[in-house]
Amino acid sequence: MRLLALASRNLKEIYRDPLALGFLLGFPLVFMLLFGAIFSGDTLPEFTVGVIDEDNTMMSQAFVDQALPMVPVLEIATYDDTGTALKDLKFGELKAYIVIPPGFGQQVSSNWQGTKADILLQMTYDESDVMISEQLITIINDVTLAFARVEMPVTVDAKPIHVENQIDYIDFIGPGIIIFGLLILIPTSARTIVRDKEKGMLSRLLTTPTHPLDFILGYSLSNVAITIAQIIIFIFGAWAMGMDIIGNLGLAFLVFFLTGLCSIGIGMVIASLSRSENQAEPLAWLFAMPLAMLSGCWFSIEMMPSYIRTVAYAFPYAHAIDASRGILIRGVGLEAVGADFLFLAGWAVAIFAIGVVLFRRSMRS
Amino acid sequence: MTSPNDDLAVQTLNLARKFGDLVAVDGVDLNIKQGELFALLGPNGAGKTTTINMLCCLLKPTGGTARIMGHDILKQPYRVKDIIGVSPQETVLSERLNSRENLELIGRIHGVGATELKTRSQELLATMGLGARAKDQVRKFSGGMKRRLNIIMALIHDPQVVFLDEPTLGLDPQARRAIWEYIIRLKKEKTILLTTHYMDEADFLADRIGIMDEGKIVALGTSHELKNNLLEKQTMVIQAQDITEAAIEKVRTKYAEAEVTGDTLVISDKQLGFQEIVGLLHQAGVAVRSAYMKEPTLEDVFLQITGKELRE
Predict the structure, then answer these.
(1) How many helices (H) and strands (E) does chain B have?
(2) CB contact under 8 A, B88 and A203
(3) What is the count of structural domains for chain B?
(4) If both were cysteines, with which of A168, A267, A271, B190 could A193 make a disulfide (CB 3.0 to 4.6 Å apart)?
(5) How far, rounded to the nearest angstrom, does the alpha carbon of residue B34 sit from its chain's CA centroid?
(6) DSSP string for A309-344
(7) Which of B96, B97, B106 sits opposite A208 (nearest CB)?
(8) Cβ contact (<8 Å) for A5 and B105?
(9) pLDDT single digits (tens) B1-11
(10) For A21-37, how does the pLDDT look when each residue is reduced to its tens digit (9 = 90+)?
(11) How confident is the model at residue A158 (pLDDT cuts 50, 70, 90)?
């Protein structure tokens, strides 16, 4: 079959090229190893965080005494009033302090009983260290979410509340690195197509009964095989590095897979618009790098200005990161990530349609 | 302009292609019979490759059309692509595939069955002397080996009409010879259209030659016809000692041109009398060592028709 003949040829061209293969799999793995090494074991950073419990319920006490100390990077110091905490923050004794406002226990209880309620925490942090405060926000956010989803113990005894998931940095960065690996598919997808176009392989094959659609599907199929291999290797790599996998792995895989399809599609569009590898390569990175920044795989996009967030959420990658973090770290299901899921699927279909149209047009003579 | 004829392997009907203002192919009418080896001979930029590209449906004509085994290139491009085999001017191979995989890619696209594909690719690789390297990635091949592979890739699916665009471009004489021998063997089975700017290649291989210049076919016929019918003058080359001015003057009274360089005298005119010239020189006391009528070459034909040299 023409399609399979083309796809297997494309695949051989890539997996027999150590440099291309190393780039696809090695580059993100280097990042993963690097981050894993930096944020693991004995060298875990310790952030001292002050806590003022104004709610003073069993629930808030459990949160302070049980949940927060479970996070390995946090050193918890309790305060009675904000004045002292603020002073310590200014002197650099604290990285941040959290105020648990009255009503916190109530809010968490409602969540436990299945009624959704916003959980409110106030956090004051040292602005001068952006990276740390950003991480802290994410960590506190995640631990609170994890805490709020814990099954309700039947008695309101002072039973220790067990927080299942300890959020550490690899958990936070893991999905990001996987998404980054999938972003690298943009230049790869563009490069393989444009190289064939530039070197005359497309013209050569157009003298055979190959239809333009055969080409597109042939390239897509080989890239899809690469995507699947990438996802499996990355998930395994992140897991080996200590990333927790709480939720449904199949669902997470599907999120990554749709993200990979979007990258392949963007690469196809770029290839259709370029005449040579020299044009396609920078153009592809021009997309991939800003998209990596905006996706939240390195920095939390919560911190970014709202118009940047709007741009970020117009592309699939920020949705992919939200969804995959939710599934992998917090163990949420389709009901929580359904919207992201639909967005990714819609995007993948749309970009493929655009790619097919542009590619066919670029093949005309 | 001729009318469609389904018995012809390749028929072009006032075929033309413009690129902006540039007229690359300017109303070409060709009739290539089945089983014929036809060579398009012309300098670089004459429009040979553009013609081939239109015939294998890569490029749309801006005027006229063509028929391959009775199938119109505009109306039935995929029927045409089914029955042709193309060896492009630029060698295009999948560098990280081995030679067998490269062959089989084209074969599979044409729907050749697995068993047949295996025997055919083994056969073709062996005839081209590539059998021992069948499993090596082609990026390790020499230019000549790639060229040979490029040619058999046009034949793996047993096409009815084969296009060879400059099959020996840039090859050393030995490699050229090997490819020529292979093409001669193919000649009996296939219709072949080859382009070349080497006049000896066209001369040696082709049943008929079309000389192309500036997008037009300027002369058409067998090598013999072209040389004999079109050349308006004959040339005689004489090696002799003691060539005197007086002897040359004597020759010049009868023939248009007579030039001496050292011991060589070259005489040319529409009609030369071999015996008469030798006699004239003898009388003038010139000791003729050798004398022969110079065979015209296609180079001469090209010069005659276009007033330009066919540069290699």
Answers:
(1) 11, 14
(2) yes
(3) 2
(4) A271
(5) 17
(6) HHHHTTSHHHHHHHHHHHHHHH---HHHHHHHHHHH
(7) B106
(8) yes
(9) 567 777 899 99
(10) 888 778 777 877 776 66
(11) very low
The residue with greater pLDDT, A109 or A6, is A6
Same structural domain for residues B215 and B244? no
Q: Which of A193, A256, A182 is nearest to A222 (CA)?
A: A193
Residues B63 and B159 placed together within one structural domain of the fold: yes
Q: Do the domain assignments include residue B181?
A: yes
User: Which residue of A lies nearest to B73 if distances are taken between CA atoms?
Assistant: A207
Reported confidence tier of residue A120, pLDDT bands at 50, 70, 90? confident
CA-based nearest residue in chain B for residue A3: B109
Give the residue numbers spanning the domain of B33. Answer: 8-93+153-228
- Collapsing DSSP to helix, strand or coil, B285 comes out as coil
In a domain, B66, yes or no: yes
Which residue of chain B has the CA closest to A205?
B106
CB spacing of B105 vs A204 below 8 angstroms: no
Query: What is the per-residue pLDDT for A162?
Result: 28
Q: What is the mean pLDDT of residues A278-301?
A: 86
* Overall size of chain B counted in residues: 312
Q: Chain-wide mean pLDDT for chain B? A: 89
Partner A contacted by B84 (CB < 8 A) = yes
**DSSP-based three-state secondary structure for B30:** strand
Q: Is residue B179 part of a domain?
A: yes
Which residue ranges form the domains of chain A, and what is each CATH number?
Answer: 2-38+170-363 (no CATH), 45-165 (3.40.1710.10)
Quote the ipTM score. 0.81
Q: Where does the pLDDT of residue A164 fall: very low under 50, low under 70, confident under 90, or very high at 90 and above?
A: very low
Quote the CA–CA distance of B232 and B213 in Å, as a whole number.
20
Of chain A, the end-to-end C-alpha distance in Å amounts to: 26
Does one domain contain both B164 and B264? no
Chain B residues with CB-CB distance to A16 below 8 A: 96-97, 137
Tokens of B68: 């391959």
**Across A145-149, A310-314, A354-358, B201-205, least confident range:** A145-149
